[in-house]
Amino acid sequence: MALPKQFKEENFESIRIYHYVEELVYSYREYMGDLLKDNEIPLTEAPFLIRLRFSDNTTQMELTKLFKVSKGYTAKLLRRFEDKGWITREEDPSNRRKKIVNLTPEGVKKTDELIAILDTWEDKVSSGLSDVEISVLKNLLFKLVMETENF
């Protein structure tokens, strides 16, 4: 990937955060998109499955709100995941209208594959950074993400 001309070390402070995020997202999408072509799951659907891996008792409605998609799209996607044996949906005992979504052992195996691919991208983009720099970067990114809660 060729970076835009504005990306020069001597002006790194004048580049907007947005542009850095845009370049990282583009890099991620290119890398993951190529590797997921033959992996039973498109790039647009992988984040749903990965999110389930790191969440307990997530509801179908929480996924809809989190990814800012329609209820119908979420239901259709989860049905596809269910058909592949990656998830189960069960009624919430305290509210029968809610569906709790959990990974099956097959779903855990699939997310292991996806996370391994994601980790290779992360390793590549951070290969020039020390452990301390990675820690500082993660701390700063955490702070930025926390600020978006107020939007």
Task: Write up what this structure looks like.
This protein is mostly helical and about 150 residues long. About 60% of the residues lie in helices and about 10% in strands. The protein is built from 6 helices and 3 strands, in the order ααβααββαα. The chain has helices at about 15-35, 45-55, 60-65, 70-85, 105-125, 130-145; strands at about 60, 85-90, 95-105. A 3-stranded antiparallel sheet has the order 1-3-2. α2 packs across α5 (about 105-125). The longest helix has 21 residues, at about 105-125. It is globular, with a radius of gyration of 18 Å. The mean pLDDT is about 90.
User: SSE string, helix = H, strand = E?
Assistant: HHEHHEEHH
Strand-residue proportion: 5-15%
N- to C-terminal separation? 32 Å
Name the strands of the widest sheet in spatial order: 1-3-2
How would the global form be characterised? Answer: globular
Q: Helical percent range?
A: 55-70%
Low-confidence stretches: none
Major β-sheet annotation = 3 strands, antiparallel
> Given the helix and strand composition, which structural class is it?
mainly alpha
Output the radius of gyration.
18 Å
Query: How many β strands by DSSP?
Result: 3
Output mean pLDDT. Answer: 89
Number of helices: 6
Keywords, separated by commas or semicolons:
3-stranded antiparallel beta sheet, 3 strands, 151 residues
In short, what is this structure?
With 151 residues, the protein is mainly alpha-helical. It has helices spanning 17-36, 46-53, 60-67, 71-83, 105-125, 131-147; strands at residues 58-59, 87-92, 95-103.
